[in-house]
């Protein structure tokens, strides 16, 4: 096996990148081997999957920052569940651009760090921050023979709508320069309030602007999904309800990824 890499991103904050990448990692790990990587210094994916919020201390010098700077992810992978591993992050990830400059590392630095483990996983799921910085470009620039894909998160807002073309431009740039295997898996509507009428307009706009890209599954806003960050996955009595919309999403994602062969253009 060579891992398929899925990067969740959008430069608008709060569109459910961390929640969606965390739940996707959890669901995929039910049957396959998954490495989740937190590329956001906020460490939300790290906290979401480990229930550990004291990330600065607990993961001090044990994060994706060190993995990238040393060019080897192996010492920084922690096991957090059956078939589920994580490379955590914390606030020190903010120093990544400066440290990369000092070490003269290029945008293939995450790829180099992951090369030794690429055959160990079926999936590598990456959460990114709400910016088009190194933390987003590095994952998109990471080539895998298994294929690499971007999931564009969209919360139905105007702010996010205008962030989509900018994100897709970054995807194109990474594809041209570093990663010919990169493809956009799709645009995922999330945090959607079933009662909000303007969503229909946004659905139409996305379908017109980006034919074929919208995932059929829509992730609706749910209190039980929000509470996952508090309750965690283990022994959570409302887990089934919290994951309701993500189960069809993960099925659809797998189907799309299997249909899009690596190297094929969008
Ligand atoms: N389907 C959902 N239903 C209800 N709340 C949700 C859902 N998905 C995410 N949330 C909540 O919305 C907020 C934003 O989600 P999240 O932190 O995953 O977004 P993000 O895109 O990662 O944010 P950032 O840009 O800051 O990294 C969080 O409080 C999260 O618990
Ligand atoms: Mg986040």
Describe this structure in words.
The protein is of the alpha/beta class and about 270 residues long. Strands 3-4-2-5-1-6-7 form a 7-stranded mixed β-sheet, sandwiched between helices. It is globular, with a radius of gyration of 17 Å. Bound molecules: adenosine-5'-triphosphate (ATP) and magnesium ion (MG).
Query: What is the SS-derived class?
Result: alpha/beta
**What bound compounds does this protein have?**
adenosine-5'-triphosphate, magnesium ion
Number of domains: 1
What is the β-strand count? 7
Q: Proportion of β residues?
A: 5-15%
Kindly report how far apart the N and C termini lie.
23 Å
Radius of gyration: 17 Å
Major sheet details: 7 strands, mixed
Unreliable runs: none
| Tally of separate helices | 13
Domain AAA: 3-183
Pfam family, one: AAA_31
Protein name: ParA family protein
Organism: Heyndrickxia acidicola
Summarize this structure as a short list of keywords or feature phrases.
266 residues; Rossmann fold; seven-stranded mixed beta sheet; 41% helix; 15% strand; globular; binds adenosine-5'-triphosphate; binds magnesium ion
Task: Set down the secondary structure blueprint.
Elements: E1 4-9, H1 17-28, E2 34-38, H2 44-50, H3 55-58, H4 64-70, E3 78-81, E4 84-87, H5 96-102, H6 109-114, E5 123-127, H7 134-140, E6 148-154, H8 158-177, E7 182-189, H9 198-209, H10 223-226, H11 228-231, H12 239-242, H13 246-259
Parallel strand pairs: 1-5, 1-6, 2-4, 2-5, 6-7
Antiparallel strand pairs: 3-4
Helix pairs in contact: 1-2, 1-13
The structure holds adenosine-5'-triphosphate (ATP) and magnesium ion.
The site of adenosine-5'-triphosphate has 21 residues, from helix 1 and helix 10.
